[in-house]
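Hi X.,

You mentioned you wanted examples for the new student's onboarding notes, showing what a folding record looks like when two proteins sit in one file. Here is a clean example. The first protein comes first, with its sequence line followed by its structure tokens.
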Amino acid sequence: MDLGLKGKVAVVTGASQGLGRAIALRLAAEGMAVAAASRNEAKLRTLAGEIAAAGGECLVHPADLRLPDSPAGLAAAAERRFGRIDLVVNNAGATVRGDFLQLTEEQWRDGFALKFFGAARLCREAWSSLAAQGGAIVNIAGVGGRTGSADFTIGGPVNAALLNLTKCLADRGVADGVRVNAINPGFIRTDRLEQRISLRAAAQGITREEAARRIASEAGISRFGEPGEIAAAVAFLGSPQASYIQGVILDVDGGITRTL
């Protein structure tokens, strides 16, 4: 199905690896030009090379979006290069797990600095361009924003804040013509999940296969998700096919979230 994205421009944060990389590749395959941002310039250039080899166009924008001025620089760079912004995908941001009583002030500040404040600032800086194009924002949050967990006391609140911001911006977006939605990924096979599996295997003296089986079983799911499945959801929500979807929080989690 043609999603109607050809010739449009997407800004994707955290694009050098994992979900962000899969999202950037999928949007480029749909015909979008991509402004890809992360702190890892080398991996961004590898991504850009893959997109170019497939006939697409990618702007490499290395930046630390935790810094207050960085989101404005990213939005400005995308507009200079492509003349417009049609879609912003706020994917950047990883938060540490750990004992609430042991987590430091710096870890708390860092958790909010990128995933929440970086996203909020980029939305603000890109808003006028998005409004001019009738564009969209897709925020990548996480299931921890809906369901609290003792070992995810930074990530859960950060995700919850991002989900609430999604609702607030969607309310504003009705008047301005900007669609704003969010996706909550569950257990997706990225490097972070693979590391978690390895740590579990080492701690319990079991194989990685058994560790993965136990994690999935404890979560109540039949399998882990793939990055491409999140990327497909982003492409749909960012496209004209989703023109009547506003303020939605989409759980792409294999059934982990069982509450309303």
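Then the second protein repeats the pattern, sequence line and then tokens:
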Amino acid sequence: MTAGEPPERTDATAPRIFQSGQPGGVPPLELTGERTLPDVPQENYWYRRHLIVYEWIAARSGGLRVADLACGEGYGSKVLAGSASDVVGVDANPDAHAHAAARYGGGKLRFERTLIDSYNEPRDVVVFLQTIEHVDNPGQILDHCAGLVAASDRPAVYVSTPNVLTLAPEGAERSGNPWHVHEYRPDEFRALCAEHFGRVEIFGLHHAGRLRAHQVAIERFGWDTVHKRLGITQRFYDRFVPAISVNDFTLVSEHDASRRLDRALDLLAVMRP
């Protein structure tokens, strides 16, 4: 696990946690670790960590037809719809689909409940974030994504995954996430993507802002032991985690020597045929 990351978001002994403050008629989703949720203060680190990637893609997808595969709760599809000409959020989970359609559907954003490899509508952009580690047929999924944008004159496929080198505990081969089938190292992820696309650029997601300062405090000054010794761990993170924003993360290209890709939190592949 990367230094600077808040404590684990789930606890098997803790009470069940659901989204709060949902609009009328919108069923709240439960925080299980399978998908990221907004409107859960304890989840804010992970929500913002994923939200920045959606915002980064949205800024590059203006006027295009977008499919958000495995869209989960739907917040990312909503972000993409802010700039795209139309967006389809695709997810097979009935609870996630019902929630997303009720909360975000309408206008140029719609949701379709189906398996990702069954969705066949031509698109300009395919977004597939934090899900390839959940599947046992990643090559087939990437080929399917390539097929969805094959007829576009501005094709792009965006796929992200956590970096196992920073996700897993030190010395472990993988994290303990039960939803993950396979977790990728940067070189392995790039090789997989290059097998299915002609042009591939990998970006690494890193801490910035207050999260970078928090990471430095742990690595250089032992803050993780200090707050435990002072008995303020829970009080500190109860304030710190909800205050995290997208400005506390940054995406850096693999060609930028200022940040090493093997230290990245997540890996984002930007691919074209």
